[in-house]
Amino acid sequence: MRSDGSAWSARRWLRSAGFAWAGVRHAYGTQANFRIECWAALGALGLCVWLRAPLAPVALACALVLSLELLNTALEAVVDLASPQRHPLAKIAKDAAAGAVLLGSAGAVLVGLSVLLPPLLARLGTG
């Protein structure tokens, strides 16, 4: 579809958002790790609310992990399309994308621990 030339078009935005949501639904329906990360994010955000801890750093860390997982899913699909047979470069691309998710997840765990652990320990009476 060609652009209508306007910088802002609600119709174009809604159409694009629909495509994006289809990608999220596909990942949730086909990628076990994405489902796990979605539920972990929901749990972490719920803890923020319960503990009255700062929401922004945890929400940003969750969004980063979920975004990286979506990019990993997209890259895997493109690599599979371009190289249906096993190829060393295809493996490198897939492994590097998975590594990005791993590093993002490790960072998110550190953010979660630094933001949530002190108020959790205080609430439990051990901090």
UniProtKB/TrEMBL annotation:
| Topological type in the membrane | Multi-pass membrane protein
Q: Coiled-coil ranges per the record? A: none
Q: What GO molecular-function term can you cite, just one?
A: kinase activity
Q: Which UniProt keywords apply?
A: ATP-binding, Cell membrane, Kinase, Lipid biosynthesis, Lipid metabolism, Membrane, Nucleotide-binding, Phospholipid biosynthesis, Phospholipid metabolism, Transferase, Transmembrane, Transmembrane helix
Keyword Secreted among UniProt keywords: no
| CDD domains xrefs | UDPK_IM_like
Q: Where in the cell is it found?
A: Cell membrane
Q: Mind telling me which residue stretches traverse the membrane in this protein?
A: 96-117
Keyword Transferase appears in the UniProt entry: yes
Q: Which PROSITE patterns match?
A: DAGK_PROKAR
Instruction: Fetch the InterPro entries from UniProt.
Output: DAGK, DAGK_sf, UDPK
Q: Which family does it belong to?
A: Belongs to the bacterial diacylglycerol kinase family.
- UniProt protein name: Diacylglycerol kinase
Q: What is the species listed in this Swiss-Prot or TrEMBL entry?
A: Deinococcus aquaticus
Organism lineage: Bacteria, Thermotogati, Deinococcota, Deinococci, Deinococcales
